[in-house]
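=== Per-residue structure ===
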Amino acid sequence: MAILFNGSAAIISLVITFLTGGFKFFVFPADPAAWGVVTIAALGYAIYERGRFTAAKLLDASVFATISNISVLVAFAGSLFLYAETMAVSKLLGGILIIGSLFLVSAGNKQKRVSQKGMVIGIIISIALGLAWMLDKSGVGYFNAITYNILMWTIPTLFIYLPGMKPEVIKKEFKLVSWKIFVLAGMNVAGYLMQLKAMETAEATRVIPIVQTSTLFTVLLGIIWLKEKENIYKKIIAGIMAVAGVYFLV
């Protein structure tokens, strides 16, 4: 599923860029550090994409969405050191709230046990995503939002495909999702490009947390649409804590 998603996103990002004339603004710096940033960030995104569909199968959408806030903490803490951005008591409180929401949603459950494998995968890929997010601001600084957006959809696709991905598996997965994968990929391309545009002018420690305000909506949709009613109050509280933590981080 990951190779289909990223491959579709790479194609869509290229089409959008050429249709809008964005290719005129492509930038390819000679500095080796720029390509080091691209490689590490792309690897982080590849790890996330390779594992997120597995985690989504093992965990409720509301649980997975809350766990993914680890990526905010990783990106936030890393950005403080990498970009020398300021720290405040409110930001520290935000971090505590997000960690608290993770423990709350992953605690023992009498009605339905949370998959330990899903939790481990979710944590690992969230850390990888956080590291990639942390490097995005450097990426758009070396390149620009348009160029970096293309690179971050194409290079990770190669990383995902190379570790033994069989063409038969790709064909089978495409039959299951068909056109839906293009819709999902298109939405992700648009959202990520806007995130990169914001990073060109704002601090990473402000932009990255704002992205995670989607957590509460995912938790609520998981409860209402997917009927994930187990531990409903705990999920809602954890989602609210996570979003409150994001706002304190900002």
About this structure: The radius of gyration is 18 Å. Residues 2-23+30-249 form one domain.
